[in-house]
């Protein structure tokens, strides 16, 4: 069928909304009419070709929508079902077989390599191959998605708000709720208060963490962090976060840190905000880190680890987050700014500039 999609034709090229051909769903796939899609920093990186992406490509990996058609092998979804889309996982490798889909051995292959589960792509334009992304390519009016990627969204839940839960929000919240699992009274530092960091912070408040220290360099973000549950905000341009945390904790440091900026120096700062036996979860895509590993990690019995997709099994974790939202415990709407699909360039720009914490493109109802 003919659909509308935002196509990026080359590295750093603009998003051009064009007519594209979308193949029919196969046995294990579902055709979804896209309602909305969040924009994640991974989309911004892919537009620059950071992941070796093959162009032209349709990006977008935080989609939501309504099922129009389900393949013969799909029992879980039927036309009319409201769904959110998350990342691709194979379901067969050792990690997937043991319930750890976030560690799927085909994670890169299925999400970044430009093809779907079957090695092809459902997208083409004038007979030319167009790469897909995360098995979704949700910057489009419609998407063909494997059943593994899909999670049902309850009636009454706004699909525009459910959309970004599929990646950024579950990454931040999952790093706290699935991996760190603090108990009430544990202290935590959240470094980098974008969409992922704010989600980690809201999860820390759900767990009863105290203190919750938000670290960023933008005052407006820190104000929102305080509104969402931070007990102390530190602007790292004006104040040393390690010193601030030590003053708050009688010199002991906090139990946990979540680092979302992806900047090596900030990871090192987050490490040193924790005390002995501290655990530091790094969610941002960081490439270089200079640290005295013996003094700052080993001798302090600290654990420094990287987290992908918040150690989340989306089919189990996303419904939990949506129910927290519905109960008023997880106000993700405070992070979201809506844009018409046609304004995708502006939405991406606002995301890069930090004007919008979590831009969400709206394709339809
Ligand atoms: Zn797998
Ligand atoms: Zn993402």
From TrEMBL:
PROSITE patterns the UniProt entry points to: ADH_ZINC
Boundaries of every Enoyl reductase (ER) domain copy: 9-357
Key words, A-Z: Metal-binding, Oxidoreductase, Zinc
Keyword Membrane: no
InterPro entries on file: ADH-like_C, ADH-like_N, ADH_Zn_CS, ER, GroES-like_sf, NAD(P)-bd_dom_sf
Cofactor: Zn(2+)
Family in the record: Belongs to the zinc-containing alcohol dehydrogenase family.
Cross-referenced PANTHER family: GROES-LIKE ZINC-BINDING ALCOHOL DEHYDROGENASE FAMILY PROTEIN (PTHR43350:SF2), NAD-DEPENDENT ALCOHOL DEHYDROGENASE (PTHR43350)
Protein name, entry field: NAD(P)-dependent alcohol dehydrogenase
């Amino acid at each position: 069928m003919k659909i509308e999609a935002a196509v990026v034709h080359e590295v750093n090229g603009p998003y051009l909304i064009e007519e594209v051909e979308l193949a029919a769903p196969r046995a294990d796939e579902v055709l979804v009419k896209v309602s909305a899609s969040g924009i994640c920093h991974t989309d911004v990186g892919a537009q620059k070709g950071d992941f070796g992406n093959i162009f032209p490509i349709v990006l977008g990996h935080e989609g939501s929508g309504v099922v129009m058609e389900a393949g013969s092998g799909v029992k879980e979804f039927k036309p009319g079902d409201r769904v959110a889309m998350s990342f691709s996982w194979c379901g067969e490798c050792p990690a997937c077989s043991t319930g750890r889909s976030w560690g799927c051995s085909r994670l890169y292959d299925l999400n970044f390599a430009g093809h779907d589960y079957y090695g092809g792509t459902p997208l083409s334009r004038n007979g030319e191959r167009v790469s897909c992304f995360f098995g979704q390519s949700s910057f489009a009016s419609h998407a063909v998605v494997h059943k593994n990627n899909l999670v049902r969204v309850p009636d009454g839940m706004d699909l525009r708000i459910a959309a970004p839960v599929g990646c950024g929000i579950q990454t931040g919240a999952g790093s706290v709720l699935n991996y760190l699992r603090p108990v009430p009274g544990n202290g935590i530092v959240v470094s980098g208060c974008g969409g992922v960091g704010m989600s980690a912070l809201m999860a820390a408040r759900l767990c009863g963490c105290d203190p919750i220290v938000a670290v960023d360099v933008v005052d407006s973000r820190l104000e929102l962090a305080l509104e969402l549950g931070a007990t102390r905000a530190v602007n790292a341009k004006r104040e040393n976060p390690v010193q601030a945390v030590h003053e708050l904790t009688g010199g002991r440091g906090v139990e946990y840190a979540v680092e979302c900026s992806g900047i090596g120096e900030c990871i090192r700062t987050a490490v040193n905000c924790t005390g002995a036996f501290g655990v530091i979860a790094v969610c941002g895509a960081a490439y270089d880190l200079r640290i005295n590993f013996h003094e700052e990690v080993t001798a302090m019995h600290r654990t420094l680890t990287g987290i992908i997709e918040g150690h989340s099994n989306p089919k189990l974790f996303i419904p939990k987050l949506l129910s927290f939202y519905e109960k008023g415990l997880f106000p993700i709407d405070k992070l979201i700014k809506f844009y018409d699909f046609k304004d995708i360039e502006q939405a991406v720009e606002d995301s890069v500039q930090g004007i919008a914490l979590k831009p969400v493109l709206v394709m339809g109802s």
